[in-house]
Amino acid sequence: xxxxxxxxxxxxxxxxxxxxxxxxxxxxxxLLESGAIVLHARVKNGKVLWILACTFDGFKKLISRLNRFxxxxxxxxxxxxxxxxxxxxxxxxxxxxxxxxGYFESPKKVKLGELAEMLGVSEATASVMLRxxxxxxxxxxxxxxxxxxxxx
Length: 152
Known about the structure:
alpha+beta, 2 domains, two-stranded antiparallel sheet, two-stranded antiparallel ribbon, elongated
C-alpha cells in the first residue's frame, strides 16, 4: 500500500480551530490530472467504489495513469452519462420556471394551463416538455441508485 505523506496543522484563530491536511497520493494525482470528477465514493472491506464523471479523453488518461502507477482497479461499469441525461437549455428553463412558479408544490400554486400560458406554449406542449424533463431526472436518479447498490 502506498505511503501517504500527511501534514497536519492545528491552529486557533479568533477561537476557531482549524485542521489542515495535505496528502500526496497517486490515485488523487491520477484523478486530478485526468479531470475526472468524483460523484460518489464508498468504502467497504478495504475497497473503494468510485463513481466518476469525465470526458472520454480524461478516462483514457486516468486508465493510463492508474496502469503507470501500478494501482489495482476494476471497471464495473462505463456509460455515456451526460449524453443520456443532459437537459437542454429550454428544458432547464421550463423546469426552473415550473419550480419557481410553484407547479411542484402541494397544493400547486399554478396549474398546467397557467404554466403553459406563462411559457407561451399550449397546455399539451407544456405537459410533454415537463414529462420529458421528469423522465430524464427519474432515469438519472434510478440509475444512480443502481450504482449505490453495486457489490464490490
